[in-house]
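for the recovery benchmark. tokens below, seq after
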């Protein structure tokens, strides 16, 4: 569980409810089923129209993952790369062939295979840079659905407010319905702005940061594996890779 995400939501939502209580309000006054349906269904519909089905499916998966602490292991691939550099320096680059099946990182294994086969390092870097970039764009497109929701939600809330006021204006003669219509109008706005700024946009930003960190981790592996083929001192390679951790 990512404590920052969990406690952030608790503090954000709880702070608003607490402020409402201090002003003399009641939680029940913020519970309006009509307003909730308008904002949630309207936002979902707008997001579905503006995104592809595959992005929606992956986006919900990334939403669940955003509540988990993303823990990328930098030390293990760094140690593997340093060991490979030492072995290549001591024996030859071809001696790494026997170690490939023992490596846990698929990218490290694939890049080193190209290094062992003597593929041009520039070509190898270009190939895997494209792979990393393509995967990053795929994940960012999926995570973008929550930023889209954060953009649509306040506007849908305004639509709900207008609908509530229309209901009020149409029932001016029936004073028993005025309070309900006004409540829907204002609560719909609260829902729209609240969902956007407390849930959708923060989650979208968290997903975006996680994706960028994942790409940085992959670039570290790519750069390290390519350095193995240059014959550079293992200690210098380790220093280069450790610098990725401090970013």
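predicted aa per position
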């Amino acid at each position: 569980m990512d404590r920052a995400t969990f406690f952030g939501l608790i503090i954000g939502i709880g702070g608003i409810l607490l402020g409402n209580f201090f002003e003399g309000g009641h939680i029940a006054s913020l519970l309006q089923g009509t307003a909730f349906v308008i904002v949630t269904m309207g936002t979902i519909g707008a997001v579905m129209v503006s995104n592809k089905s595959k992005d929606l499916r992956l986006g919900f998966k990334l939403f669940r993952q955003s509540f988990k602490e993303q823990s990328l292991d930098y030390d293990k691939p760094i140690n593997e790369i340093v060991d490979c550099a030492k072995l290549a320096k001591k024996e030859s680059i071809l001696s790494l062939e026997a170690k490939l099946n023992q490596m846990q990182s698929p990218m490290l294994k694939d890049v080193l295979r190209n290094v062992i086969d003597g593929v041009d390092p520039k070509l190898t870097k270009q190939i895997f840079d494209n792979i990393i970039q393509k995967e990053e764009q795929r994940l960012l497109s999926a995570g973008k659905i929550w930023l889209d929701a954060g953009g649509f939600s306040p506007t849908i809330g305004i639509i709900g407010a207008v609908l509530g006021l229309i209901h009020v204006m149409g029932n001016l003669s029936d004073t028993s319905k005025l309070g309900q219509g006004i409540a829907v109008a204002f609560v719909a706005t609260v829902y729209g702005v609240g969902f956007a700024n407390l849930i959708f946009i923060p989650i979208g930003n968290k997903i975006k940061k996680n994706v960028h960190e994942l790409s940085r981790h992959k670039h570290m592996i790519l750069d390290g594996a390519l350095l193995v083929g240059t014959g550079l001192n293992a200690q210098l390679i380790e220093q280069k890779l450790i610098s990725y951790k401090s970013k």
